[in-house]
Design a protein that fits this description.
The protein is mainly α. Helix content is about 95%, strand content about 0%. Helix 2 (about 65-95) runs antiparallel to helix 3 (about 100-140). InterPro entries: ESCRT_assembly_dom (IPR037202), Helix_hairpin_bin_sf (IPR029012), Mod_r (IPR009851).
């Protein structure tokens, strides 16, 4: 029995040695795989951070493109061009601006002023319609 146990022990040692040698063969690919995985994980973290930054930018632009915000900005710009054209007319009446210059600039300013006013009115109409369509739905909820 002792000889059988010794034989089993030697067989187990040989099997273990064989398994250990096979495991050593897999060590290099495993370490390479771990390094690749680590690099990919770092790349993923960088991409996730970049994605968060882009999302924040997108949300900022989306907020700026809100219809009420656009209406407010358009009204401000409309008022500015209106004031500029009035100042131009005053300068012309005071003789500070020649007729040709006045006609060219004033026509452009008035055209822009009218376009903005029309856009403001159209956007206000759209917002009123949007609010009106949302009110009945909001009451029922």
């Amino acid at each position: 029995q002792v000889q059988e146990l010794q034989l089993e022990r030697e067989m187990a040692l040989a099997a273990n040695r064989s398994l250990a040698e096979q495991n050593l063969k897999f060590q290099a690919p495993l370490e390479t795989g771990r390094a690749d995985l680590s690099n990919k994980y770092e790349e993923l973290q960088k991409l996730a951070e970049r994605c968060k930054e882009q999302k924040a930018k997108l949300e900022k632009f989306a907020a700026a493109m809100h219809p009420q915000t656009l209406l407010d900005l358009l009204q401000v710009e409309s008022q500015k061009i209106e004031e500029e054209s009035e100042k131009m007319a005053e300068k012309f009446l005071e003789g500070e601006v020649p007729l040709e210059t006045f006609l060219e600039r004033f026509a452009v300013m008035r055209k822009l002023s009218h376009l903005r006013r029309v856009r403001v009115e159209k956007l206000q109409e759209i917002l009123r319609k949007s609010e009106a369509s949302q009110e009945p739905g909001g009451d029922s909820q």
